[in-house]
What we know:
It is a single chain. This protein is α+β, with helices and mostly antiparallel strands and about 180 residues long. It has 3 helices and 9 strands. A 9-stranded antiparallel sheet has the order 1-2-3-4-7-6-5-8-9. The longest helix has 17 residues, at about 15-35.
Amino acid sequence: MPCPYTLQHKTVPHLNGKCYILRLILCIYLTLSSGVFFADSAFALLRQHHDAPGVLRYHSHVSIKDDFGYTWQVVLFKLFPPGKAVEFNLRLVGFPGVFELAHPQSLEIVTAKGKLLSASDVYAEKSPSSNVGDYNLTNVLFKLTTTDSLKLYVPLSGEQRLVLQIPASVVTEWQWLVTDFNS
Length: 183
């Protein structure tokens, strides 16, 4: 019996019931095993950009949903101020008109083990937009002893706080940025 999976004599063989079911099962298995439907919602990505001609920099960029279902852009980048030590800033960008970040207020960070850390507000004077926050994470990153998940308590206007869950995979990437890129 000729194999129904190959083309013979330049004609497409008729798919009998048994062959059709096998192909369908194979397609379903491959789709589910690829993780398309179960992908993590916070996939971090190290990106590179040019700060100046000939100066290449790396940053971590991830989109994370808050408890209300709104997506936030979370960007950690490395700064090289002239004559100073390297700094790491975390930029949080929410959807315009939904939340207004409070300035100047620190970002509170809680580790998976319950340790409370704080990052100062870079936009203490004036933020470029009410939905943008920039926080100095330099001291915080060096205090993280593990790459466990974090909770960011984002200060909002009106004494409100919003929680962003940062997965361990993103924290691991942040540690790579600290130790491996543009030392």
